[in-house]
């Protein structure tokens, strides 16, 4: 196993023992020795199929697994990523029918039920269900089973309470209703849709996403954010060590708060010759299969260091960590001393950016105004920043890993730049006026000779169009070029007939070409009077040749 380092020589028996101990499968030593595996080199040269037949699926998965330092999340909403393993009955203890199952069924059932929903959605679901219970109790109804009368009764309370997410309360009620074994009828679906329509009618738009206006970032962004943190008297334990570079990187990669906290040093890769940086994005609740993905951005510095350059922002962080000898693959990139940033630290950074980049003074805001900026502020700010920069919304959707039209809630009106739209309309109007002006001047100065030339140009254009030089079918036997049938797509090839009606070229050997090939003459019957002058003898020979060719075909 080349991915497992060992101190001993890889051709010795000690190296085999060292590799098996490192992977936690030292109990397989006897089986491997009996199969002739006596060193790490012998083990590496065994195929997976051979090892699988010797060790089984469970032991093989442990043997080839890349040992990574387990992430120790300090946030309860960080998803758990399990190491790769091949699905196998041996893992359940069912490989041998004579043996009993080794899986803890109670634990397996509990994990299965818990993972139906993300960790972060469990508390909101419980809260909605408690609200449903309270509303049903206030109207004198039992919470289950759900009925049309219950939907209408609870809906009236939700409407009076100005609930915007009424559909989610009905959704949790339906889920509990079906889980309890009650049928859900079409009448109940109709009542629910009508209730949601009534509750949301005239409720008004939702609160818009708050932008950070990254274009207003000062040259010394990191120092400015630290000064703002001092002004707001933020405790030291709530400050991130690299405030400016973290804000820039989070905005460029459109990171959620949980993703900012979960980025490790090994997730960043630089291609210095191309001035590119790649971030292997950690998994989140929307990535249920824990597949992850990578995104790459380039340096944007032109003629000097740009404050919002994501390449240099991440390079500054990595350089600082290495200079302090604090860089470790498993260390968290944006945290203090390699620890995972907390949700409060990320939210505090967003609020410092709001003060540093805000156009209004902090004294003009209310005391709770800064609470509106939270962990998702960088995702919103990055999406609107890219949209104002002219990046297509589809590209922003790809960068941000949006799988639906939710991106429009983030971009909002940023994609519509009034100045750019006004400039485009002004240019269009200017071109139209210039065309109209030139046409008017031409009509005022036009002479009879110009009119005659213009008519001749029209005749030439009509003649050129009627020649139908799009494609010609050439008869190699008669050396004549014909106009093909205008309805080829609607007819069988055996029915293809030239425009002159004398050659079925669909069942004969023919050559198609846009221009008249050398040595061929154009069929006058196909092209009419606009065709080049041909002698009458050529016409006669053409007709007889076509007839003979058609007959021979």
UniProtKB/TrEMBL annotation:
Chain spans, region Disordered: 534-553
Keyword terms, alphabetized: DNA recombination
Keyword presence, DNA repair: no
Classification via InterPro entries: DNA_brk_join_enz, Integrase-like_cat_sf
GO biological process, one term: DNA integration
GO molecular function, one term: DNA binding
Protein name (record): FtsH protein
């Amino acid at each position: 196993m080349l991915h497992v380092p060992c101190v001993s020589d890889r051709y010795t028996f000690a190296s085999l023992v060292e590799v098996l101990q490192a992977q936690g499968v030292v109990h397989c030593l006897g089986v491997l020795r009996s199969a002739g595996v006596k060193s790490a080199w012998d083990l590496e040269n065994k195929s997976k199929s051979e090892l699988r037949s010797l060790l089984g699926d469970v032991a093989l998965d442990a043997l080839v697994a890349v040992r990574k330092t387990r992430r120790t999340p300090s946030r309860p909403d960080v998803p758990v990523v399990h190491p790769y393993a091949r699905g196998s009955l041996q893992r359940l203890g069912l490989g041998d029918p004579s043996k009993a199952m080794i899986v803890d069924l109670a634990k397996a059932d509990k994990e299965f039920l818990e993972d139906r929903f993300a960790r972060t959605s469990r508390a909101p679901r419980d809260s909605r269900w408690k609200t449903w219970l309270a509303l049903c109790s206030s109207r004198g109804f039992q919470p289950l089973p759900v009925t049309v009368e219950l939907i209408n009764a609870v809906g009236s309370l939700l409407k009076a309470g100005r609930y915007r997410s009424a559909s989610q309360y009905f959704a949790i009620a339906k889920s509990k209703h079906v889980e309890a074994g009650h049928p859900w009828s079409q009448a109940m679906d109709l009542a629910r849709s009508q209730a949601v329509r009534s509750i949301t009618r005239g409720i008004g738009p939702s609160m818009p996403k708050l932008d950070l206006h990254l274009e207003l970032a000062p040259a010394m962004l990191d120092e400015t954010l630290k000064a703002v943190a001092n002004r707001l008297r933020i405790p030291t334990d709530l400050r991130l060590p690299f405030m400016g570079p973290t804000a820039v990187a989070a905005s460029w990669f459109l990171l959620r708060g949980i993703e900012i906290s979960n980025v490790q040093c090994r997730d960043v890769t630089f291609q210095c010759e191309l001035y590119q940086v790649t971030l292997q994005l950690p998994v989140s609740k929307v990535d249920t299969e824990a597949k992850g993905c990578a995104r790459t951005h380039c340096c944007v510095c032109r003629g000097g260091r740009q404050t919002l350059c994501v390449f240099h922002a991440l390079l500054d962080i990595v350089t600082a960590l290495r200079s302090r000898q604090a860089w470790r693959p498993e260390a968290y990139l944006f945290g203090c001393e390699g620890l995972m940033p907390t949700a409060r630290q990320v939210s505090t950074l967003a609020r410092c950016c709001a003060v540093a980049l805000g156009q209004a003074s902090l004294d003009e805001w209310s005391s709770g105004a800064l609470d509106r900026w939270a962990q998702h502020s960088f995702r919103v700010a990055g999406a609107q920043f890219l949209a104002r920069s002219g990046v297509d919304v589809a590209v922003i959707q790809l960068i941000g890993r949006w799988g639906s039209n939710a991106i429009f809630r983030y971009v909002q009106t940023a994609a519509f730049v009034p100045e750019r739209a006004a400039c485009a309309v002004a240019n269009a109007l200017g071109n139209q006026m210039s065309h109209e002006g030139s046409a008017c001047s031409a009509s005022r100065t036009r002479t009879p000779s110009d009119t005659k030339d213009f008519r001749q140009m029209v005749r030439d254009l009509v003649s050129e169009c009627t020649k139908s030089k799009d494609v010609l079918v050439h008869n190699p036997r008669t050396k004549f070029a014909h106009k093909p049938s205008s309805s080829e797509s609607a007819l069988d090839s055996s029915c293809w007939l030239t425009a002159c009606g004398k050659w079925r070229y669909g069942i004969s050997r023919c050559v198609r070409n846009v221009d008249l090939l050398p040595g061929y003459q154009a069929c006058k019957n196909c092209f009419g009077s606009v065709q080049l002058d041909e002698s009458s003898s050529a016409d006669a020979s053409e007709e007889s040749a076509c007839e003979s060719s058609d007959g021979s075909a």
